[in-house]
Amino acid sequence: MTAHTLSAARPATNGAVLRAWIASPLFLKIAAGAVLLLAWEVTVRALAPAYVAKPLAIARVFTTVISDPQFLAAAGATLGAVVGGLLISLVFGTAVGFAMGRIDLVERGMRYYVNSLFATPMVAILPLVTLWFGYSADARLAVVVFAAFFSIAVNACDGARSVPLEYLEVARSFRAPPRHNLFDIVFPSSLPYLLAGVRLAAGRALVGAVVAEFFISIPGLGYYILYNSRTFKHSEAFVAVILLVAVGVSFEVLVNWLTRRYLPWARRD
Amino acid sequence: MGPETRRGRYGIVMASLIAGAAVWEAAGHVVSGAFWAPLSATLESFLESARSGFVVRQIMSSFQLYLTGLALAILAGAPFGLVLARVRWLRVALENYIMMLYATPMVALIPFILSIMGFGFAPKALVVFLFAVFPVIYNTVEGARSIRPELVEIAYSFRTSEWRLWCDVLIPYTLPFTMTGIRQAIARGLVGMVAAEIFLSPSGLGQMIMMGSQNFDTPGLLAAILIIVLLGVALMDFGRFLENRFAAWRGV
Questions:
Q1: Does residue B200 belong to any structural domain of this protein?
Q2: Which residue of B lies nearest to A234 if distances are taken between CA atoms?
Q3: pLDDT tens for residues B100-154?
Q4: Does B25 share its domain with B52?
Q5: Residue ranges making up the domain that contains B5
Q6: Which of A108, A121, A248 sits opposite B232 (nearest CB)?
Q7: Domain extents for chain A?
Q8: What is the DSSP string of chain B?
Q9: Topology adopted by domain A59-266
Q10: Chain B interface, mutation test: which of A36, A58, A108, most B Cβ atoms within 10 Å?
Q11: Is residue B189, in this structure, part of any structural domain at all?
Q12: B89 in the same domain as B6
């Protein structure tokens, strides 16, 4: 009986180790990724025309594309516009949002405009923006700012309004100047809201930049995708999509990390 | 909080709306007609195309596209999210990819869809679907993650059937999160709709915008944008209403 158990125990542990490894999250994730890529490759080979992007073809052109100066210039132009637009929106959106959140008159006067422009799909204003800024990089920046500004303003406003009343009362009883009110109370306590706004704004800004490039046809990742897919170079075009996804995910991860690392009290969801 | 304060509150809002309309009107007279049109001309253009039934036709066409894509996204996304909520290993395997697709700017796929599927209704509905489906799945999975394991364990120890487990634990627990996803899907789907109508085959409100811009008909262009703005506001309010309606039982 003992001998039997012992002899059976060895292969059982090996099996258990193997099974534990298969059930480990990392293995599951990698396996799922492999299955998805395989399914994509097989489906496209079986059903779609030859030019349609598939993983192996993308992998083959990947290094050529990302070392192509034209692609790098496109990526730089798009990301520059996204980051620049986000910074502009962050500065002005925070100012407008705080003013709305703390001053009742401003809030009542601007609420309808900010809310309705926040709800407006930025694609709809493309023709208007090109009327004003011409078919230029400025138009792209304007679309990015339009896409990002209002989500930051709306969130900054919510944040400024969520400041605990007691804090402001304490500040008042110590006769704190308004400057201290703003930078020591309102700003820190609305930071979590601001970061949530930036997260939303970053995604929208990326969409805005790509859409503007489709419409305006100026060099950038969106135009790179448009041009290459029109000439049936889908694999090349898809490399640009991968870069966009990477940027979108990095924004998401970065903001989540910042919130967890520096604002541990803000874990509301 | 007497009636006077309330009147004051509405007074400021009304004043700001009237001031906005006045600035719009004045800007139209000061700036060249190629850049901006007065509010009166915009409304006139709207009424003119409303009288001919054009506006209604375009709105109906847009709605058909929007609702098809959105309905497919909800019908596919919510059950899929629930399955991921129940089957833990599948959720672990797929959650990072879902987060990735959630953060993907789906507009970037429009040129591929155009060159593979061409013109027509299906590719446009696909665009709306792609814009809308990932928020639904992503939020449902987030909700699934928040289900307390004790609940499922208790259900097990009472030998709950799989069906009752879904009805009494899984669905009630994840529904508020799914509603957040649907609210996001409502907003994103609208962006997808307009993008599809501008960049794929022109139709609906997107076509109205493009016609206004190509014919240098600024009042027509502004009228089309105004319709989309109002539509966006109405849909956003509706989404918020849905979310709040179901947020009540969201366990903290």
A1: yes
A2: B112
A3: 999 889 999 999 999 899 889 999 999 999 999 999 999 999 888 878 888 888 8
A4: no
A5: 1-30
A6: A121
A7: 2-48, 59-266
A8: --HHHHHHHHHHHHHHHHHHHHHHHHHHHHS-TTT---HHHHHHHHHHHHHTTHHHHHHHHHHHHHHHHHHHHHHHHHHHHHHHHH-HHHHHHHHHHHHHHHHS-GGGGHHHHHHHH-SSHHHHHHHHHHHHHHHHHHHHHHHHHTS-HHHHHHHHHTT--HHHHIIIIIHHHHHHHHHHHHHHHHHHHHHHHHHHHHHSS--HHHHHHHHHHHTT-HHHHHHHHHHHHHHHHHHHHHHHHHHHHHHTT---
A9: MetI-like fold (1.10.3720)
A10: A108
A11: yes
A12: no
| Residue B25 sits in the same domain as residue B55 | no
Residue type, B247: A
Chain B hits for A111, CB-CB cut-off 8 Å, are 13
ipTM for this model: 0.88
Q: How many domains does chain B have?
A: 2
- If asked whether residues B13 and B98 sit together in one domain, one would say no
Show Cβ contacts of residue B123 under 8 Å, excluding neighbours closer than 6 positions: B113, B114, B117, B196, B200
Closest Cα in chain B to A227: B111
| B146 in reach of chain A (CB within 8 A) | no
Q: What is the CATH number of the domain that holds B223?
A: 1.10.3720.10
Q: Closest-CA residue in chain A for B251?
A: A269
Would the CB atoms of B111 and A117 count as touching at under 8 Å? no
B89 vs A contacts (CB less than 8 Å): 23, 28
pLDDT in tens, A234-260: 999 999 999 999 999 999 889 888 888
- The pTM (predicted TM-score) of the whole model is 0.89
